[in-house]
Protein 1
Amino acid sequence: MLRFDGKSAVVTGAGSGIGKAIAAALARQGAQVAILERDPEVGQAAADEISQTYDGRATFYRCDVTSQTEIRDVAAAIVSQQGTIDCLVNNAGIAHVGDAATTSEADFDRVMNVNCKGVYNCAHEILPIMVRGGGGVICNIASTVAWFGIGERFAYSASKGAVVAMTYSIARDFVADGIRCNAILPGRIHTPFVDGFVKKNYPGQEEEMFQKLADFQPVGRMGQPEEIANAAVFLCSDEASFVTGSIHAIDGGTISIR
Ligand code: NDP
């Protein structure tokens, strides 16, 4: 069950946090995983660690998801190594705090560029490869903020709402090509993303803010990256063959039982 032997997977932003956990989980299940990351040190370290644990099944490719040219080059390099790309996990993302009035144009563009255009860039370059290969699967990592409003996440929420809409659109347009596309809405997950966010935005109140963020989930804690990775592995697997165009909240009950 949930085996990926002989399959080629791409995970963006896989140098840390949720992306790294997804890359490790796919490699554990037998996939050959391409780790796309903009920071070469972080990306190489993640690939080395996963490769050592899972029989060489991770390779680092430096790229910034905001650059379509870089994604095109990296996708071509992966195809020349692996033959095709069967799974794409669009995970790379950045955070931002601000409401519609306080968010600058530059910050809005920066967040949309990574979180929204990054997903488009990867889909644009990798979908034709999947079509040529006879099918494939995309798993987009959005956020619960695509579905409900929390304070001062204007640009971030807009970008994640767009990811949900792109998920429906891709699922619809490529269903006849044997391509499935789904999204995960993670609740608060304890990763460097959260630690960096707390440090940057609440200096001196880190512990108090961390606890507040943990208590926000009805289960009373943040999730672990592996808890998102388990869902991503299922959605990318052949066992999820009837699942497409669907949105999965993995959030400790945040959306449904507040
Ligand atoms: P991390 O910051 O730990 O990991 C994100 C990774 O993406 C980093 O390695 C980052 O690199 C990389 N990245 C950022 N921008 C780019 C880019 N332009 N090109 C390539 N790589 C890039 O975050 P998480 O693991 O917490 O988050 C992963 C995803 O999950 C994000 O999309 C996030 O929005 C989403 N999410 C996270 C939640 C959480 O509570 N943690 C909750 C809901 C959704 P660098 O360090 O160089 O920026």
Protein 2
Amino acid sequence: MKILVPVKRVVDFNVKIRVKADGSGVDLANVKMSMNPFDEIAIEEAVRLKEAGKASEIVVVSIGPAQAQEVVRTGLAMGADRGLLVRTDAAVEPLAVAKLLKAVAAQESPDLIILGKQAIDDDMNATGQMLAALLRWPQGTFASQVVVRDGSVEVTREVDGGLQTVSLKLPAVVTTDLRLNEPRYASLPNIMKAKKKPLAETTPEALGVDVAPRLEVLTTAEPVTRKAGAKVASVEELVSRLKNDVGVL
Ligand code: AMP
């Protein structure tokens, strides 16, 4: 079984985001970038399937600028076999990413594509679903457990108020939720080994995909700052403040 794992280079989750003064977007100058955390979970799941003898090859793919190579290398250091960079400096929306991944899937013929449920930069939560629709493959989103059977995959999904288990015929698309696994850190020897693993490069043009944006960002704003709280000395004071000052009682 061959697994394709798309990984996105995003602002590191520890970075405090700064909005550009003109509200046109987020300031990315000198900001630490890393692999989207949900994609680390996707790689980890693929590597575990390979370690369990269920998968034979893992291909990791990223769409982005030259620096996106770094997250592909991270995937290789975690245990993927081969990398692919679809190089573009354009800002790519989920639909464009899904079209590019469909083109990559046509070349690679994976049995399973494992994506993150969402990229933590723009929180779209759309690419996996769009890709499954374009490929006409079944999808199991928000996976908290993945069990590969003969010709199918059983996905336990985190849904409101509980879990749902679906069985998908392969080839299929799965997106990862937080509780699927705890990704490993790449060890230094594996980081060194990853430098020698094959990493190919292509472009949207070569894949015949138009990545022109369909969405327009109107404005980007900082979250509203919270007003300072106040301490009260007793329940009576709390009730009185809620009644008289806040007006909620
Ligand atoms: P999104 O729909 O943008 O929230 O992203 C969901 C998932 O799609 C991510 O976790 C990645 O697995 C994949 N993805 C999104 N953008 C890219 C990209 N530029 N390159 C590779 N994979 C991506």
